Amino acid sequence: MSDRLVLAIDQGTSSTKCLLVDAAGAVVREASAPVPIRYPRPGWVEQDAGEILDSVLVAAARCLDGVPRGAVAAVGLSTQRESAVVWDRHTGLPAGPVLGWQDQRALAVCEGLRKDAEVVRAVSGLPLDPMFSAAKFRWLLDRTPSAAVGTVDSWLLFALTGNHQIEVGNASRTQLLDVRAGRWSEELLDLFGIPAAALPEITPSNGELGRISERGGVLAGLPITAVLGDSHAALYAHGAGEGDVKATYGTGSSVMRLGEVAGDAVCLTIAWNDRLAAEGNIRSSGSTVAWLADFLGVSAAQIGEMARSAASDGVHLVPGFGGLAAPWWDDTAVGLVSGLTLGTRPEQLARAAIESIAHQVADVVDAMGGAGRILADGGASENDQLMQIQADLTGVPVKRARTASLSALGAAFLAGGIARPLEYDDFEPRPRDPAVRHAWRDAVARARTPAARS
To answer: Where does the Carbohydrate kinase FGGY C-terminal domain lie (predicted)?
Structure first.
């Protein structure tokens, strides 16, 4: 790669961010554009594919405003994962809503396949769950049977280059990929009733992945040389080694480490190209704070301030708003607040909300067999109190990246062949009472149905 710049596009759940990165890995410009999210019914979370594309074009135009056209050598793309997109093969226009990764409307599809859950897990590396794309594809194709489907990276690659393709790491999150073979599984396609012709072609994570057409506006003519799922891109940016566990603190949380982990508590996925990784997904972390802020009529920042000056005093908030994901994988779990007394005040609830994020990450780290250190990133990681609680609950050091937007940075690094070590803030674990974790697990048990616990 020459000294020219790399544009990283990070298409996330609530916004699209763009970074312009030089050959040394330094961010020289950045911009963003919001993406609306809609909740038309309880458990439904959807977006508009056209609005997602528009946000990419707007953010890119803002980031490249005034930049000489020949200064950018390549584009790297990181995207939200598991969300399902459907579009018309002939017109190229969206043919239905984007079903977000939190969307639960395809739960009935999964329920109909419970007898095949072990097969699904063995082949795909993923538990049968409506979070993943396959059941969402089925729901969409039932309403638009001749359409094309894909994940957000597939949609953007198609819209920008005209090619119907999907990066292998994103493909591994669909629940239709044979995760060890790296190809679509005929057995899983049959189980979910997905025609192979509706799916994109699987591509590597980097290389010549397509050249952007005139539809891309300021991006026209640029090559896309890397595509990664957002969590995978953050892992790549950290340069994680053996014993490292990466934890991204966003709307939900992704806890990931390279290599396989025994047991079914976490997923087996593809990090990039042929590198396998273990991952535990948490449905609600930052969104728990957002919910409580809305409930109390304050801002998310105020929740952090309230928590900073309080103890939880035995109050636990289990954010099972749409069930619990890793390591429980319990769709029937409910949201629960326990330990309330007449003396409980909003400050205790705020502290319990912050602690719920750290407890859930600790649950996944425990399921992975522990960690040598936790590499943290994401918006909520800016909360020093959360990072210290995380170190205390897991008993291992937490290193928080000082650089924001790691998903975009990871895409830029892979697209440009850039290697740059990150700088971190360190949080060392302090002694803790084991009863703290036991009390949390008791609260989780109360949030789950007896059938799911057995």
So the answer is: 246-416
Q: Partners of 317 in the beta sheet?
A: 337
Does 449 score more than 80 pLDDT?
Answer: no
**d(Cα 393, Cα 374) in Å, to the nearest integer?**
12
Q: What is the per-residue burial (b if ≥16 Cβ within 10 Å, else e) of 422-440?
A: bebeebeeeeeeeeebebb
Q: Are 136 and 130 in contact (CB under 8 A)?
A: yes
Q: Which residue has the higher pLDDT, 70 or 175?
A: 175
Pairing status of strand 27-34 against strand 46-47: unpaired
Note whether 268 and 126 are within 8 A (CB): yes
Three-class SS state of 412: helix
Cα(45)–Cα(94) distance, integer angstroms:
17
- pLDDT score for 452: 59
Q: How far apart are CA 340 and CA 349, in angstroms?
A: 9
Per residue in 202-241, pLDDT (tens digit) is 999 999 999 999 999 999 999 999 999 999 999 999 998 8
Pairing of strands 244-249, 373-377: parallel
Q: Which secondary-structure segment (H or E) carries 8?
A: strand 5-11
Q: How far apart are CA 163 and CA 156, in angstroms?
A: 9
Q: Residue type at 44?
A: W
> Three-class SS of residue 344?
coil
Sign of CA dihedral 169, 173, 175, 180: positive
DSSP category for residue 377: E
Question: b vs e for 29-68, b when ≥16 Cβ sit within 10 Å of the residue's Cβ?
Answer: bbbbbebebeeeeeeebbbbbebbbebbbbbbeebbeeee
Task: Please report the domains of the chain, with CATH numbers, ordered by start residue.
Answer: 5-222 (3.30.420.40), 239-453 (3.30.420.40)
Instruction: Give the mean pLDDT of 365-394.
Output: 94
Q: Which residue is listed with tokens 């800016």?
A: 382
pLDDT at position 432 is 84
Residue partners of 245: CB distance under 8 A and separation at least 6: 255, 256, 257, 365, 368, 371, 373, 374, 375
| H or E, element range at 400 | strand 398-401
Give Dmax (Cα) for the chain. 66
DSSP for residue 323: B
Provide the mean pLDDT of the chain.
Answer: 93
